[in-house]
Amino acid sequence: MLSYFFVGLGYQKYLKRLIDVVSAISLFILFSPISLLGSIAIKIDSTGPVLADVPERVGQQGKRFKMYKFRSMIENAHFMLRTDPKFKQLFEEYKKGSYKLKKDPRITRIGKFIRKHSIDEIPQLLNVVKGEMSLVGPRAYYPDELENQQVEFPHTKVQVRKVLSVKPGITGLWQVSGRSEINFDKRIGIDAAYVDRISLLEDLKIILRTPIVMFTGKGAV
Length: 221
What we know:
Layout lengths: L7 H23 L1 H14 L11 E2 L5 E2 L11 H7 L4 H9 L12 H8 L7 H7 L3 E3 L6 H10 L4 H7 L5 E3 L12 H13 L3 H17 L5
Helix pairs in contact: 1-6, 2-5, 8-9
């Protein structure tokens, strides 16, 4: 009976949610000085809001939600990438690179730093408190990203369904396994593998590996 609360569905329904809420509130308080300094730096560095205006993400069971992130790009960067003719070639590169760009001209000076060290993701703690995300889980994908990448990698459809059965996470197995250096088919495979073995021990291992990735910035773009 005890193992039910530490492994699988029992852990997901009860203990994982409790840990998420307590940890998210604690981390939000802990990172508040960094958040304040980051907000000031963003406003000084470029015009636009502190929080990024990004498209909705796909959450658990396909439900879409607004992910909170500090703005690391020029204002309206995501909308411009998809609609501005001058970004047409860049958008094609973006799609071919599994929806990642190694050299993105839209990223601001301070944005490059906060993305490298995952400071831009601190506001996602609010998503965790709201129950839209978990501290640890699969990546939260864009709707068009999921649609287009499954066309390019049709063998991933079963894995995508499995990944969408749980809440996305701020950190996860793919984030500590190479981050943006991993293409979609491998990334979704890693996330699906995580879903198969969700447990308190697995989450603790990922959480302990996350600070190293944050400080080194390995795999960030």
